Structure formats: C-alpha cells, structure tokens
Amino acid sequence: MKEPFLSAVPVIKRLESAGYEAYFVGGSVRDYLLGNKISDVDIATSAKPEEVKAIFPKTVDIGIQHGTVLVLFKNNSYEITTFRTEGEYQDFRRPKEVSFIRNLNEDLMRRDFTMNAIAMDANGSIIDPFDGQTAIKERVIRTVGSPEERFREDALRMMRAVRFVSQLSFHIAGETLLALKLDAHLLDKIAVERKRAEFEKLLSGDNRKNAFRILLETQVFEYLPGLKKRELKIEKLLSYPFDFLNKKEMWALLLYCLELDQQNSDAFLRNWRLPVKEMKEIQDILLYAKQRLIKDWSRYDLYTAGSETIQSAEKLYLVLKGINDYDSVKYWLNTYDNLPIKQRSELAVTGSDIMAWRKQAGGPWLKELLTRIEHAVLQNEVVNEKEKIKEWLKACSQKSEKNC
Ligand code: ATP
Ligand code: MG
C-alpha cells in the first residue's frame, strides 16, 4: 500500500477496534489499481454516522442523511460513509432516504460501475464481488447489474459513464452503451447541478473528444442545458485541436461553437448554474479570443484582460486558427509583464491630485481624463511619475485637449 492510503490506515483501525468494519472504497481504490494519481480517499464502514462521530473527536456533518461524516484526522480529512442501500428510487433520481446496513457486499452492490464497486481493507486485500478488477484491466465501464435498471434508478449514472470515458480513457461496455441510448431521455429529470459536476469533469478529461462523440452517438447531449438540437455545433467543436485547453477555455470554445450572442451566452451559462464569477471569466476569454481573430493585442487590452485571461484567450485563439505553436502565448504574457502599470491603483496620480491641479470639482471629465492618462502611461507616452504626468497634462492643455 502507499500514500494517501497509509495515512488513512489508522482511521480504519480505529473503527475496527471499536468493533466495526471499515474499508477504502470508490474512486481511490479504482485509481490505485489503475496506477493513476489518487485523489480523495473515501472510507465505507458498518458504523452508523453517530457511531463514527463518537469515535473521532473532530468531525463535520456533510451529508449525514446519506450517512456521510467528514473526519478530520492528523491534518487530513476523510469522508466516512455508512454502508447503505438506497431503497426505493423516485422519478429516476437518487432516493431521498437511504437505509443503513451492516453489510459491505450490499453497499458495493448499490454502486454505479464495477470498477467503482471494489473495496480494500487495512492490509491492502481487495474485496471485489463484481469483478471490477477485470473491468479495470480491460478498461471498460460496466454497470453493477442490469444497466437499464441502474440508469432508471438514477439517470445521472449515464453522465457519469461518459465523464469516466473522458477521465480514464475507458470504453463503455456494449450493453451499458445500449442502455445509455435507450434511457438518455431520463436525464431530463436530473438536477442541473449534478449534471454540471459530471460535465465539468468530462470537459477536463484527457479523452474528452471521445466522450463528446459518445454524447452525440447516444443523444445524451439532447438532455443537457442549451445543447438540445445542437448536434452540428458540437460536431464543429470536435473539429478543433483542443487538447491543451483547460476547463474554462473549453467552456469558451463551446460558447464560440454555439454562436451565441452576449445575451444568449449569458443565459446558456446561467442555465448550467455556473457561478457568476466563472461566467464572467469564460465570457472574457471568448471576448478577447474573438478580438484576437481580428487584430493583435493592444497594450490596453492586455492591461484590461490581465495575465490569466491573456493566456486563456490566446490559447483559444490558436485553437480556433488551428495553430500548434504556443510561442505567442509567452510573447504576449511577456509584453503584459513589461507594462508600466497593471491596474489603475498603480497610476502615480489620483483623482484628487487632478482635481487639485485643475481646481475643478469631480465629474465625468475626471474619469475620462484618468482613462487618457492610463492609455498614455501604457503607451509609454509619459512616465508613471506624479511630476511627469503633471507636466504632460499641462503640455496637453496648452496644445489642445484632444492631444491628450
Ligand atoms: P473521482 O475520482 O472523480 O472522485 P469517484 O468514482 O470517486 O471518481 P465520486 O463521485 O467521488 O466518484 O463517487 C464515489 C463513489 O461513490 C463512486 O466510486 C461510486 O462507487 C459511488 N457513486 C457515486 N455516485 C454514484 C451514483 N450516482 N450511483 C451509484 N454509485 C455512485
Ligand atoms: Mg471521489
């Protein structure tokens, strides 16, 4: 066994010495068997949430109705979930109520795919009742039990299958893929927030091109916000060499391919329930990339965009142009780094300085003048020093206002 499991073994041992069973489960065991980087270590136990809380002094209730308690242990935190079955499913969504059980096998049985239904004990022994290890060897995504039944219980599992294609470069087993085509419409019942979490993982995966192909092939895209009847636009997206784009840049590329105006692109991102800050970042990337299709970056655009947006917008521009050489990203970032100021607060003069010099109360003229000074400093027309700017303003007003 290796980290991060090793640090978590004492957590399992504590549960065991209190008389309960406990195992590593879920994505961490799968990724460990795959030899991939392991993210969060999840633990499943026969102890009920209150019993878990009685054993560990520091816990946080993060999903107690589903049996999950977050345990803080030696600078790490672990999600510990009580073995459970999910009882009756309502309306193709995961059930509101779960029943806690004392049996590991039944807990593994309610999990989505065989590769995700493997447990590992504190000694590193594997418990694998559904032959998930073979699925991992064959790189195949196969539901635990009948795919149709499992997708009808919780339709989100279909999105999860496609995001695992993207994340793990696995393929979907024949019968499971067939059920996906048959039941794709059930995704209509699923909360957008749950779909988004899976879609964003899909957007970030190495094999996302194939995942998008499966969204098309199975018609799953028809049941995702803003993608209904957008088959041709998604096909257009697939024609771009987007291997090096990150998640936000992928959202921006998707917006570009959908050819939405500002208002509709707002609505699209809002329908996906993206946080407002991210919406703005994505739209900025697209805005500057589109501008870049027409002309080089101006110093003022570099200044207003900032380094992160410059990098993303330039990358997106290169993808749109089919250019494989990323040197220009470095070039523009370097130009940005050498700008004399990065934000207005770095100007050597303030509004009050100017009002004092001009002996004039503030007003729209002041904002306009500050913007002109900003431009002049950025273009190296004037050095960003108080006295230099004062002289420059004086010279300007002696010529004509228009010159500055
Ligand atoms: P990742 O590495 O991306 O976190 P993961 O497999 O750990 O992948 P999670 O969403 O963290 O995915 O879920 C943890 C585990 O819970 C899964 O491995 C699976 O066993 C189970 N699970 C999650 N969602 C579902 C679902 N909708 N239906 C059935 N089992 C699920
Ligand atoms: Mg996980």
From TrEMBL:
* Any one Pfam family match given in the protein's UniProt record, by short name: PolyA_pol_RNAbd
Using the record's annotation, list all stretches that form the tRNA nucleotidyltransferase/poly(A) polymerase RNA and SrmB- binding domain.
170-228
Residues bound to ATP are: G27, R30, R111, D154, R157, R160, R163
Residue positions annotated to bind CTP are: G27, R30, R111, D154, R157, R160, R163
Signal peptide location in the record?
Answer: none
Q: Which UniProt keywords apply?
A: ATP-binding, Magnesium, Metal-binding, Nucleotide-binding, Nucleotidyltransferase, RNA repair, RNA-binding, Transferase, tRNA processing
- Per its UniProt entry, which superkingdom is the organism in? Bacteria
Cofactor(s) the record lists: Mg(2+)
Task: List the InterPro entries hit by this protein, alphabetically.
Answer: Bact_CCA-adding_enz_type3_sf (IPR050264), CCA-adding_enz_C (IPR032810), CCA-adding_enz_firmicutes (IPR023068), NT_sf (IPR043519), PolA_pol_head_dom (IPR002646), PolyA_RNA-bd (IPR032828)
Residues annotated for Mg(2+) binding in this entry: D40, D42
- Spell out the reaction equation it catalyses: a tRNA precursor + 2 CTP + ATP = a tRNA with a 3' CCA end + 3 diphosphate; a tRNA with a 3' CCA end + 2 CTP + ATP = a tRNA with a 3' CCACCA end + 3 diphosphate
Q: Where is the Poly A polymerase head domain?
A: 22-142
State which Enzyme Commission number(s) the record gives: 2.7.7.72
Domain CCA-adding enzyme C-terminal: from-to ranges:
244-393
Molecular-function annotations in GO: ATP binding; CCA tRNA nucleotidyltransferase activity; magnesium ion binding; tRNA binding
Any GO BP: RNA repair
What PANTHER family does the record point to?
Answer: CCA TRNA NUCLEOTIDYLTRANSFERASE 1, MITOCHONDRIAL
What does the sequence similarity comment in the record state about its family?
Belongs to the tRNA nucleotidyltransferase/poly(A) polymerase family. Bacterial CCA-adding enzyme type 3 subfamily.
| Quaternary structure and interacting proteins, as annotated | Homodimer.
Q: What's this chain's function?
A: Catalyzes the addition and repair of the essential 3'-terminal CCA sequence in tRNAs without using a nucleic acid template. Adds these three nucleotides in the order of C, C, and A to the tRNA nucleotide-73, using CTP and ATP as substrates and producing inorganic pyrophosphate. tRNA 3'-terminal CCA addition is required both for tRNA processing and repair. Also involved in tRNA surveillance by mediating tandem CCA addition to generate a CCACCA at the 3' terminus of unstable tRNAs. While stable tRNAs receive only 3'-terminal CCA, unstable tRNAs are marked with CCACCA and rapidly degraded.
Additional detail: A single active site specifically recognizes both ATP and CTP and is responsible for their addition.
Q: What is this protein called?
A: CCA-adding enzyme
Q: Which gene encodes it?
A: cca
